[in-house]
Amino acid sequence: MKYHPLSWVLLALSIALPGCGSKTTTKTEIDQEFLQNFKVAPVVMESGKNQLSEDKIALGRMLYYDERLSKSQTISCNSCHALDRYGVDNEPTSTGFKGQRGGRNAPTVYYAAGHVVQFWDGRAPDVEAQAAGPIMNPVEMAMADAHAVDAVLLSIPEYRTAFAKAFPDEKQPITLGNAALAIAAFERGLVAPSRWDKFLAGDANALTPEEKEGFIAFYRAGCHTCHGGPLVGGRLYQKVGLVRPWPNQKDLGRYDVTKQDSDKMVFKVPSLRNIDKTAPYFHDGSVASLEAAVRMMGEHQVERPLTDSEAKAIVTWLKCLTGELPMDYIRKPELPKSTDATPKPAGD
Predict the structure, then answer these.
(1) C-alpha distances in angstroms, 32 versus 23, 37, 153, 156, 204?
(2) Alpha-carbon distance values, 28 to 20, 212, 215, 222 (Å)
(3) Band of residue 253 on the pLDDT scale cut at 50, 70, 90
(4) 54-191 has which fold?
(5) Which of 25, 35, 207, 281 could form a disulfide bond with 211, CB atoms 3.0-4.6 angstroms apart?
(6) How high is the mean pLDDT of the chain?
(7) Is the domain defined by 5-30+193-321 classed in CATH 2.30.110.10?
(8) pLDDT in tens, 213-232
(9) Handedness of CA 272, 273, 279, 282 (dihedral sign)
């Protein structure tokens, strides 16, 4: 999949059209035309290839929190994607096995299941394919192979029962593939509805006048051409440094997957939901503040540096995308106890 060339065309038109220039609007009602590209976020992100069930979700919740799926038995999915912190660790890059640092910023897991692809470079098509990646990554959780994962799970009677319930039609349900399906099933329910959803559903008073002005500034700057849809992003690839070279050229993004020159510096466009809570920003976690990130987008993607009032207004609107965490859904369950047969942690 390439980055979306139409995005740049629409962005340029939005800047060139009368009324879409650098003037800051004081209008506090949003034209319906501006909202055509936005929808209320889903309450669950279903998949035709991974049928959801309460048993599968419950299993996935346990696995998400279980540090025994890492070689050192000190790292879980939640270590880098902390659910009570909006699905991130607020680090530029995450700490993995033996203190190693990952190469990219850990994106939020909230609404990730609704993205067109997974990882910044799109190397996994969905959360089902993504879930096993960190477990096997030598820099992250560092399990040696699928058999090492299976050995841990098979050694714990409660997991044998839980897998049998989650995958009742399988004679040998404990596999790394099924563990990934269970984790993905849990992740498909990681949503955080916000006041933006209430506004899109018809509650005109859900946003303040300042937030409405911020959305208008966001729209007129052309940001919506990439950050649209129900997740306000997550739908396409785009080149960073579209109109002015990006400062950090070390990570070539999608190119590392495809080896096509046209994919150099191309990354998946992230969702902006909960963006106020998921600093630092961008694939390298190089920008600490939301306002600085907005200004960088103006400079490198829009070809028109944003004014102080525009940048601040956009940040004001972005904060209304912060949703309410599903505390009951994400509550850490009591994990099954290890047995004498459970493999011990390893540090080598």
Answers:
(1) 20, 10, 52, 55, 12
(2) 16, 6, 10, 18
(3) very high
(4) Cytochrome Bc1 Complex; Chain D, domain 2 (1.10.760)
(5) 207
(6) 92
(7) no
(8) 999 999 999 999 999 999 99
(9) negative
What is the pLDDT at residue 278? 99
Write out the two tokens for 164.
């049998």
Q: How far apart are CA 125 and CA 135, in angstroms?
A: 17
User: pTM to 2 decimals?
Assistant: 0.91
Exactly one of 67, 91, 128, 140 is catalytic; which is it? 140
The token duo for 181 is 């399906």
What is residue 266's three-state secondary structure?
A: strand
Whether 91 sits among the annotated catalytic residues: the reply is no
Task: Kindly report the number of other CB atoms within 10 A of residue 156's CB atom.
Answer: 20
pLDDT tens profile 14-46? 333 333 333 444 447 899 999 999 999 999 999
Tell me the domain boundaries of the chain: 5-30+193-321, 54-191
In angstroms, the CA 272 to CA 3 distance is: 18
